[in-house]
Design a protein that fits this description.
about 325 residues; alpha/beta; Rossmann fold; about 30% helix; Zinc-type alcohol dehydrogenase-like protein; oxidoreductase; oxidoreductase activity; metal-binding
């Protein structure tokens, strides 16, 4: 089967950073399903691993997590899917990735593809949906009130996670949604997704929140540049508020938050599959819930750009763009 991989981690500009290869087609066993991959999207985790992590066995390392496709085989322990089902999912960090024609995945973390979306539109959603959903409902517990403004500040609202987080917050909560965006096109994007207010993350955040006259937000969800905004977040968040983030700050002074008794939460949607947690099937349930919201017309795909086919050249182009930090929404590759 066709696939894209690498043997030595390095900068995307190097010829060997991503290579078109042929690999044996996997076979579904146990609780796995084998999916014929129709579309994949690229996330920051792709370039972070590509630039830093060698293959564990010295062979090819295949990246890719988001995927949408058709079930071709089911393991003997699988009861929720059958051959021919259309699915979407975000894979696991400890298994080969989705940048391949056929991909094995644990059925518990797979959802049924929204019927109203095409392959590319669906592939844009899983990883970011799981990240945003878990961050808001499992980590920040936004349905449990905080003595402050019933509002959530989403830092980096125009990115992949921010774009779906805005929509989920609007559809699943009564919170006032404040998003950051710094360019005219990204500001319009987050407004179109449903943000009540938009502020500029290239300027100090706390004064802009104060100017909204809504009070101190109970919740802050930071998707990018958390280290840069930490002092502002500590100033603007409500006492006893909840602060969550998903990026990898080199340093984070938690003492900034002690006086306000702010709780701090790090979200990683791969945790359930990394550790095989007893609630691992929650991810399949989340994706199924999201599919209902999409098919009911309440949430839209965050796809902004599509390339074809899925090959090394196109993946290099997308990796470079994601790594630049200038991407809006999600970029998807479709078809081999």
């Amino acid at each position: 089967m066709k696939a894209v991989g690498y043997k030595v981690p390095g900068p995307i500009a190097e010829d060997a950073s991503l290579v078109d290869i042929d690999l044996p087609r996997p076979v579904a066993e146990g609780g796995d399903i084998l999916v014929e991959v129709k579309a994949v999207s690229v996330n920051p985790v792709d370039y972070k691993i590509r630039s830093s992590t060698p293959p564990a066995d010295g062979d090819w390392k295949v990246l890719g997590w988001d995927a949408a496709g058709i079930v071709q085989e089911v393991g003997p322990d699988v009861t929720q899917f059958a051959v021919g089902d259309e699915v979407y999912y975000a894979g696991s960090l400890i298994r080969p990735g989705t940048n391949a024609e056929f991909h094995l995945v644990d059925a518990r973390i797979v959802g049924r593809k929204p019927a109203s979306l095409d392959w590319a539109e669906a592939a844009a959603l899983p990883l970011t949906t799981l990240t945003a959903w878990e961050a808001m409902f499992d980590r920040l517990d936004v349905t449990k009130p905080v003595p402050g403004a019933a509002a959530i500040l989403i830092i980096g609202g125009a990115g992949g996670v921010g774009s779906i987080a805005i929509q989920i917050a609007r559809q699943r909560t009564d919170l006032i949604v404040i998003s950051t965006a710094s360019r005219p096109e990204t500001q319009e994007w987050v407004k179109g997704l449903g943000a009540h207010h938009v502020i500029d993350h290239s300027r100090p955040l706390a004064p802009q929140i104060a100017e909204l006259n809504i009070g101190a937000p109970a919740f802050v969800f930071s998707t990018t540049h958390t280290e840069q905004h930490a002092s502002d977040i500590a100033e603007l968040i409500a006492p006893q508020g909840r602060f969550g983030f998903i990026d990898d700050p080199k340093a984070l002074d938690v003492m900034l938050f002690k006086r306000k008794a702010v709780s701090i939460h790090h979200e990683l949607m791969f945790t359930r599959s990394l550790y095989g947690t007893p609630d691992m099937d929650e991810q399949g349930k989340i994706l199924n819930s999201l599919a209902v919201l999409v098919d009911d017309g309440k949430i839209r795909t965050t796809l902004t750009e599509k390339l074809s086919p899925i090959n090394a050249a196109n993946l290099k182009t997308v990796h470079a763009l994601i790594e630049s930090g200038a991407a809006r929404g999600k970029i998807v590759l479709e078809g081999f």
